[in-house]
């Protein structure tokens, strides 16, 4: 709201009465000017606004409200984006973020590098460069003026694009850890680049469908844009909001040291575990959640924002969160009842409660090399001697639920978004640079030249050629025709799942579907299955990240070609640095990474899960997933999931038009979260429930003014502060730079020899 709207009394004296003399009118106008100046001066001193009653503020209901009421559409086309500051800070933070993301990938916590983390750092450094670099003479090319929102947003895109671990690195590390195959560095890097850049071609083609329209909200970008606009708008309200931001940022920065290092019990505070004193396995399995692969965390409350932020409670739409919570509550019942009823013999065989590894029937870790020949392909004779591998019950159910969600994602989009699909693809509109999209932010972008579709198509074809070259020249595991088939599959999947991500903020993994197809195309070949997953799934998943960054560029009014440049640069830097650090970590921590449980500091659960899926789908699909086999219902879940949204759509047509209940439930999200718990640490989810309801229901509907001004800004502050201190602690005390420094053991930080996990449940035996 503008300042003038906050001081309505000033307008009453804006004109002299009709019968006044000229001098009287002049005197009256001078008085008004003086009153205005005094009012603004008082605001700067007292920082008090005459705020209308809370109930007069409109409630935010949908994407259009967020796009117009929380994010403003103002733009100054004269602001430069591709500045020296952009290149200097973008390169530095991209290198930093790619290193940090690779470290996180090998941690038991499922942490990621937040773009908000890099946004804050770049703001501080960008402001410093603008202040201290001279602006005259030759230096004006290095410092073109105040640090502006366009170059700032470009730095965020550059660095955040580099700050995710590419799935190609997952394959390279899995080959190294579990197959003894070490790719040549050049092959590894070019393979990573090709898989990443294929996603750019997808993103460019799908812009008209998944970026330009208003319904393509991408909720995760809202806190970023809200913070960017607050930082670079020089009015009073922005100053007040920035003061709020720095207070919250500082508080969480100081707080996070306590639960993450000094008092880890607070990462998963469970009254039941405290009462049990570590005596019973069931209590650990059901209520525990503070350590990697410990338990599913029922009624466990965490106070570590690094973990809480995984649930996105402050910015995911309420519809998405309710669907996720319903799925997770069902998961508590499903996982526990299945394990203790001995589904798939998981309990009777003595398999761990939670693990992503494969096991022999005696409960020991399955050695996959004993069933593969020298070409890393399935050997039936060796398999007959070794026998079937077994999945833990919880992990098998997780795969089943993910497949339910995959099938449901396609039919959900067909049922609820058919009109948008038809509009985008009719007449091949997506191949042209359209200008008629009805969106207030897109309307402002028309002053800038678009990126021609030819650029994206060229990248698509070029990266495909490079990928084929690496496969044929050095890693002959996947033929070129098969790569083409899976790239086409990936594009189709991206189109459908992009809708779910753009509208709800939820990204549905689809690797199960892709690996099922690859199992029939390349039976008995686990490495080929991994590469099919790379080009049939990972390229599309990368495209979703790129589409989100394109939306960030639209919200911040960045020239499209500047966004394009930032994304390409970030991809190149990230691919190189991911590979370098991955080799370093594997060299230093190989034993911890292949251990099925891992340690508190290092865990290879990502790579183990990647490898398990490759072996089960690639080498043993017939033995494990065919009819009458143990895990047949895992692939069948895709078909069941596909049919489920049609059932809910029919119920909505018959019963739900008045309440909207059946339309409100997002089936892909519910199904996904049914199987979301058997991974890593789970002590934070009940805290997410409380915060999510408080933010997206109570604050949004009962305190709409506060919600609009501060909710997304608070999310940015909490994420930024916790990410920065977590990075410092990783290098200072968690062993990222070498050896770790353990905080002294005490009641809130049990030692490993005590037989207790960090939440004082019975420790998991590795």
Automatic annotation (TrEMBL):
Transmembrane residue ranges: 86-106, 112-130, 197-218, 244-275, 296-316, 322-340, 399-418, 454-472, 484-506, 630-649, 661-677, 711-736
Its membrane topology: Multi-pass membrane protein
Top-level taxon of the source organism: Eukaryota
Keyword Glycosyltransferase recorded: no
Biased composition (Basic and acidic residues): 15-27
Keyword Protein transport on entry: yes
Molecular function, one GO term: oligopeptide transmembrane transporter activity
UniProt keyword annotations, A-Z: Membrane, Peptide transport, Protein transport, Transmembrane, Transmembrane helix, Transport
InterPro entries, sorted: Oligpept_transpt, OPT
Pfam families, sorted: OPT
Region span, Disordered: 1-33
Coiled coil: none
Gene Ontology cellular-component terms listed: membrane
GO BP: protein transport
NCBIfam families: OPT_sfam
Family to which this protein belongs: Belongs to the oligopeptide OPT transporter family.
Name of this chain's protein: OPT oligopeptide transporter
Originating organism: Gloeophyllum trabeum (strain ATCC 11539 / FP-39264 / Madison 617) (Brown rot fungus)
Taxonomic lineage: Eukaryota, Fungi, Dikarya, Basidiomycota, Agaricomycotina
């Amino acid at each position: 709201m503008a300042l003038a709207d906050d001081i309505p009394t000033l307008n009453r004296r804006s004109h002299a009465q009709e019968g006044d003399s000229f001098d009287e009118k002049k005197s009256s106008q001078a008085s008004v000017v003086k009153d205005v100046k005094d009012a603004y001066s008082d605001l700067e001193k007292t920082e008090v606004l005459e705020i209308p009653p809370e109930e007069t503020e409109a409630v935010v209901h949908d994407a259009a409200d967020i796009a117009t009421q929380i994010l403003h559409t103002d733009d100054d086309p004269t602001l430069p984006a591709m500045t020296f500051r952009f290149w200097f800070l973008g390169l530095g933070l991209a290198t930093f973020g790619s290193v940090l993301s690779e470290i996180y990938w090998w941690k038991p916590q499922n942490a990621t590098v937040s773009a908000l983390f890099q946004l804050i750092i770049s703001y501080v450094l960008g402001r410093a460069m603008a202040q201290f670099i001279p602006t005259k003479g030759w230096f004006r090319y290095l410092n073109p003026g105040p640090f502006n929102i366009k170059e700032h947003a470009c730095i965020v895109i550059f660095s955040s694009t580099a700050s995710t671990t590419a799935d190609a690195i997952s394959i390279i590390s899995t080959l190294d850890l579990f197959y003894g195959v070490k790719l040549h560095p050049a092959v590894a890097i070019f393979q990573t680049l090709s898989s990443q850049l294929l996603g750019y071609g997808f993103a460019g083609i799908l812009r008209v469908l998944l970026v330009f329209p208003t319904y393509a909200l991408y909720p995760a970008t809202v806190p970023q844009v809200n913070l960017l606009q607050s930082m670079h708008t020089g009015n009073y309200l922005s100053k007040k909001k920035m003061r709020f931001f720095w207070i919250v940022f500082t508080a969480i920065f100081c707080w996070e040291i306590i639960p993450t290092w000094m008092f880890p019990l607070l990462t998963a505070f469970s009254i039941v575990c405290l009462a049990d004193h570590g005596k019973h396995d069931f209590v650990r399995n059901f209520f525990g959640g503070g350590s990697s692969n410990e338990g599913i965390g029922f009624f466990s409350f965490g106070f570590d924002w690094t973990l809480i932020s995984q649930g996105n409670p402050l910015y995911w739409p309420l519809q998405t969160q309710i669907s996720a919570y319903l799925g997770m509550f069902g998961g508590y019942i499903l996982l526990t009842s299945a394990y203790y009823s001995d589904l798939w013999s998981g309990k009777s065989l003595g398999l761990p409660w939670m693990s992503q590894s494969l096991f022999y029937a005696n409960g020991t870790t399955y050695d996959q090399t004993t069933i593969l020949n020298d070409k890393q392909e399935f050997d039936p004779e060796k398999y007959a001697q070794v026998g079937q591998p077994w999945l833990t019950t919880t992990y098998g159910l997780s795969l089943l639920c993910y497949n339910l969600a995959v099938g449901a994602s396609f039919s959900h989009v067909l049922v609820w978004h058919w009109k948008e699909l038809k509009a985008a693809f009719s007449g091949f509109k997506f191949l042209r640079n359209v200008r008629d999209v009805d969106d207030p932010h897109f309307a402002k972008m028309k002053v800038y030249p678009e990126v021609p579709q030819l650029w994206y198509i060229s990248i698509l074809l070029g990266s495909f050629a490079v990928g084929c070259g690496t496969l044929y020249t050095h890693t002959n595991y996947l033929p070129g025709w098969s790569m083409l088939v899976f790239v086409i599959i990936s594009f189709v999947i991206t189109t459908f799942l992009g809708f779910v991500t753009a509208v709800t903020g939820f990204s549905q993994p689809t690797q199960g579907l892709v690996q099922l197809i690859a199992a029939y195309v390349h039976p008995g070949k686990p490495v080929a299955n991994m590469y099919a997953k790379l080009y049939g799934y990972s390229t599309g998943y990368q495209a979703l990240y790129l589409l989100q960054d394109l939306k960030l560029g639209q919200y911040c009014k960045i020239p499209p070609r500047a966004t394009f440049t930032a994304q390409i640069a970030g991809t190149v830097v990230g691919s190189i640095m991911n590979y370098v650090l991955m080799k370093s970590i594997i060299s230093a921590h190989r034993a911890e990474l292949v251990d099925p449980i891992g340690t508190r500091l290092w865990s290879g659960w990502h790579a183990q899960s990647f490898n398990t899926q490759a072996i089960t789908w690639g080498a043993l699909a017939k033995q494990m997933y065919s009819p009458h086999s143990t895990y047949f219902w895992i692939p069948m879940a895709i078909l069941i999931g596909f049919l489920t949204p049609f059932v809910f759509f029919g119920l909505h047509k018959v019963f739900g038009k008045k309440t909207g209940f059946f339309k409100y439930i997002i089936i892909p999200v519910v199904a996904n979260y049914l199987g979301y718990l058997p991974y890593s640490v789970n002590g934070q989810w009940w805290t997410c429930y409380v915060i999510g309801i408080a933010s997206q229901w109570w604050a949004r509907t009962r305190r709409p003014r506060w919600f609009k001004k501060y909710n997304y800004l608070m999310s940015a502050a909490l994420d930024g502060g916790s990410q920065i201190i977590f990075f410092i602690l990783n290098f200072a005390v968690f062993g990222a730079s070498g050896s770790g420094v353990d905080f002294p053991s005490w009641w809130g930080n049990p030692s490993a020899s005590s037989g207790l996990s960090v939440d004082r449940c019975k420790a998991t035996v590795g």
